[in-house]
Structures are given as structure tokens and as C-alpha cells.
């Protein structure tokens, strides 16, 4: 379940504009002065893995409206195979997927793509301290509790992008 602080009418208008090829100066429902959000068209390659098809599709649409390219997997095995093909910059994983949970996927992503600069985000209903410890040990960079507040995810991505830009500049110097 996503906690999205805007009207569905705004989302529908934004979706219609997106389908017609228009870009946005801001995301629907975001404050006009929130400079910490990424600008549309500055897209990243994002992988979403969630066994809840509706949640994955909804989040995908919202991230696409922000200018990102989004790929969806509905289980851990599919997520790993897809990640090998697309090499995402950001992976958003549900921890509670059946068969292979998000912790296993995160750990295997870190192992199979060594040196890859990837933000791995947990999106889960599990909020106990030991759940956060397990996700950190598995290689997650951030742990979000459902329902997701979209602006917090955008801020997390923006902070990661800034750190990546600095790391790139440092490696070239």
C-alpha cells in the first residue's frame, strides 16, 4: 500500500500528459519549493521487485512520471535475472516475497554485481529493529516501511545521486 499525498485526479492528469509526451516541472502532489526531488527527465534505471502486482505497477507508474525507466519483477528469481540484464542503478525490493525474499535478493545482487554502484532499497511492512538489522546485513542501503511516502523515496534517491556524483568526481581527480 502506498501513502501518496495527492489527489487521484492529479495523477490521472499527469498520466494523460505523460502519454502525450509532456514533461513535468514537478511531480503531482509535491510542494513547489521541494528542491530535493529529482527533476523529470533525469531518469535512472530502476528495478522494482514485489509480489503485489498492484503495488509494483502503481510505484512503477509514479517513478515513470518522474522520468525514470522502470522494470518490474514479481519474485526474487525474476528480479535477479532481470538485474543481470538491465544493471539497475536503483533496486526497490519487497522483503516479504515468497520463494526468495528481498534480503536474499539484495545479498545476491551485491555478490553478483561487485563494484556496481547501486542503491538498494527495502520496501516492507516489517519494522522491528531486528528486521532493519537483517536488511542492512543483506546489503540494503535504506529500509522503508509500507505505506511508502513517495517524497521520502525521492529524497533518498536524490541523496544517493549526489553522493554518486561526488564519488565520480573524486575518482576522476
Per-chain topology:
Blueprint: E1 2-3, H1 8-19, E2 45-49, H2 53-65, E3 69-73, H3 76-86, E4 90-94, H4 102-112, E5 119-124, H5 129-138, E6 142-145, E7 148-149, H6 150-172
Parallel strand pairs: 1-7, 2-3, 2-4, 4-5, 5-6
Helix pairs in contact: 3-4, 4-5
Task: Give your account of this protein's structure.
The protein is of the alpha/beta class and 173 residues long. 46% of the residues lie in helices and 17% in strands. It has six helices and seven strands, in the order E-H-E-H-E-H-E-H-E-H-E-E-H. It has helices at residues 8-19, 53-65, 76-86, 102-112, 129-138, 150-172, and strands spanning 2-3, 45-49, 69-73, 90-94, 119-124, 142-145, 148-149. The strands form two sheets. Strands 3-2-4-5-6 form a five-stranded parallel β-sheet, sandwiched between helices. The protein has a two-stranded parallel sheet with strand order 1-7. Helix 4 links the parallel strand 4 (90-94) and strand 5. Helix 3 runs parallel beside helix 4 (102-112) and helix 4 packs parallel to helix 5 (129-138). It is globular and about 40 Å long. The termini are far apart. Mean pLDDT is 83; it is low at 29-41.
Amino acid at each position: 500500500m502506498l501513502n501518496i499525498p495527492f489527489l487521484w485526479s492529479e495523477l490521472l492528469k499527469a498520466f494523460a500528459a505523460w502519454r502525450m509526451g509532456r514533461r513535468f516541472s514537478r511531480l503531482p502532489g509535491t510542494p513547489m519549493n521541494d528542491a530535493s526531488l529529482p527533476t523529470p527527465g533525469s531518469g535512472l534505471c530502476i528495478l522494482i521487485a514485489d509480489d503485489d502486482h498492484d503495488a509494483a505497477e502503481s510505484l512503477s507508474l509514479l517513478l515513470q512520471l518522474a522520468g525514470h525507466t522502470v522494470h518490474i519483477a514479481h519474485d526474487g528469481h525474476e528480479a535477479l535475472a532481470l538485474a543481470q540484464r538491465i544493471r539497475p542503478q536503483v533496486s526497490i525490493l519487497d522483503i516479504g516475497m515468497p520463494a526468495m525474499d528481498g534480503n536474499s535478493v539484495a545479498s545476491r545482487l551485491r555478490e553478483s554485481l561487485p563494484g556496481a554502484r547501486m542503491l538498494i532499497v527495502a520496501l516492507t511492512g516489517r519494522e522491528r529493529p531486528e528486521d532493519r538489522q537483517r536488511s542492512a546485513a543483506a546489503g540494503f542501503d535504506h529500509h522503508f516501511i509500507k505505506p511508502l511516502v513517495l517524497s521520502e523515496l525521492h529524497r533518498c534517491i536524490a541523496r544517493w545521486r549526489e553522493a554518486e556524483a561526488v564519488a565520480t568526481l573524486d575518482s576522476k581527480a
